[in-house]
Write a structure and sequence with these properties.
The chain has 26 helices and 23 strands. The chain has about 725 residues and is α+β, with helices and mostly antiparallel strands. Helix 16 runs antiparallel to helix 24 and helix 18 runs parallel beside helix 24. About 40% of the residues are buried.
Length: about 725
Amino acid sequence: MEQEKQFHGRANILLGVFVICLLFFVLILYDAQIVNGSVYLAQSNTQVTTTQTVETSRGILTDRNGKVLASNREVYTVSFNPALVPASDGGAASQEDIARAVLRLTELCKSYGVSWDDGLPLSQEAPFTYTLRSASGTQRSRFRNYLMDRGWSDTELTENTTYPLMSSALEADVGLDAGPLTADHLLSLMREDFDIPALFTDSQARMVLGVLYELSLRTLPKPKTVNVPYGFAQDVPVELISQLKDGSFAGVEIGSRSVREYHTDYAAHILGRVGDFDSEEERAALNEPYLTARDAGEDTSAIHYYQQDDKVGKSGVERAFETYLCGLDGKRLITTNREGKITSELYSIEPEPGGTVALTIDIDFQAEVEAALGRAVEAMNEEDGLETRGAAAAVVSIADSDVLALATYPTYSQRTFTEDLAAINANKANPMYNRALGGTYSPGSTMKPCTAVAALEEGLISPQTKINTRGRFTSAYFKDYQPRCWIHRQYGGSHGRINVVKALEVSCNYFFYDMADRMGSTKLNEYAAAFGLGQPTGIELGEETGFLITQDYVQNKGDTWYDHSGDTLQIAIGQLFEVTPLQLANYIATLLRGGTRYGAHLLENVTSYDGSRVLYTHEPEVLSQVEMSESTLAAVKQGMGDLVKSGSVSRQFKECVVSAGAKTGSAQTGESVANGVFVCFAPFDEPEIAVAVAIERGGSGAALASTAVEILNAYFAPSDIGSALIPEGALLS
């Protein structure tokens, strides 16, 4: 009985608690729906939820040893979002409300000395003028689209900064006489279009219009819809960020983004740069894979979509490996109240940084090659006063054609590019010109190993065959053309009876004239092409290919082709046609490899940003094959080795820390001084690397031997001075 009473007592207590809770809940509902319903409804109506793109970080560039060459630095950013501007009357923000919010922000930034992005090509202060001459191609394109969208122009832009636009539509559309749309006219039109308050001065209006103009560009062809964020400024100081946070600046969003940062003053032509789009067409082309997949209903989550303010690789490996480096942006849902304060934040898609791209170059070795090249050219310039001389060097691995170094002189630094730009542009030798890939030079006598291989493999001679070289060459095919060997031209003599090994050592023109005369240019060019001369190397960067004097080449020029002509003799000694320094290095690597030509390459591998996945690993690609016997290779190799041991460059190679083989070349240019060309390989017995050096108006190839020795020593006996990432000199000029 007692237990039954206790049970009923507990049940009554629980029931009482339940009734109290129910009454409390009813009171809350009453308050929410009856008493304060209108207040809560108003508050809910002022909540704004927007989807933001969360910019990812660009991938990292490293050398083959893992040294970071390019990475990213996080900086504070300020964006302006008109959707977050509260209205003065409690409704939707008017254009005047937005203009006032922009003015408050720009004046604060100006007081801190912070500049902001503004692509409107009008001067900041009166008297207002157009600044189209200094505008980028993208800015010019966007400006024209904006004017066309407004109906203020129906003509193309011109370079005239005073009257850049003519419009027949002005009279009808805006009451102005048809004719020049002056800067003042444009400012007046834009003030009216964006409802700029009359109390704003023209200078204040110009500041505000720059931001509103950028906002409107993001929503064309809906010209007055300004409801998307605009990346206003980046790398903003902490003091300004604090002021923005404390001041409740309407429309302002504070975030962060990564900016590209280079950690070396070397390899500028390899690394390249990032920058803005040159045109909307460029951005559209990059977005084509994304749009194609989207329109086909396919998954687009692994395809980067480029926003208007994105940076993109413009040159070098930054451009070549853009797909690996760009990463994937994320998505974030932001909810704000009517004051613009963020009330909730949620990632719907996490950003994925770009991959880590490992290059084949060794940055410390690259620095040594650039320095050696610079010393050689500067010594020549000091001697003859020439200011336009340039040079290039290429070093490749014989095992797989890895590009170990690719140097150009003069060069520049990506780290200090902006600061050095005036000096770079003033340099008559054009530091921006990538001579290692874009410079084309006649190979001169460095062609002779190829001619020797062709003669041996075609059975014209054996390694032991001796030719009586008489100094002046005559042929049954051309009686009036009798070219002379260099020894006859200089001393009136000859090299006498020599075999192919000796011919390579002493660089006897007569010997190789004879070989070309017997085989003809068609067969000789077949070997040259198979070795990769005048052919694409496969390098991932843009390159020139040069040319060979072939039947197609001659006929395309409108000339008559003769297989046996004086040109045939000149081809045999490397004149009349042009190749790049990288082609020369890869040709020597192909030779020492036994005739298998691999594509030259800079990309070693790519891993995901966290290292968890391998996205790409390079595998050697066979581009062509030269049939070559062991005896042929041994003979050519010996001739190149004898040049180093006892030939014209033996003195320079006494300083080399490793055994080597080499070939000199003088490429005729029609000027008094020839281009100097030099190729070599090392070690002699088990070759690891092939080197090519070209110096414009460098004279004899032998003059480049010391530079080649410096390069070999830097590779096989590197100094312990320290990393190339902190050099003393940045710009070689």
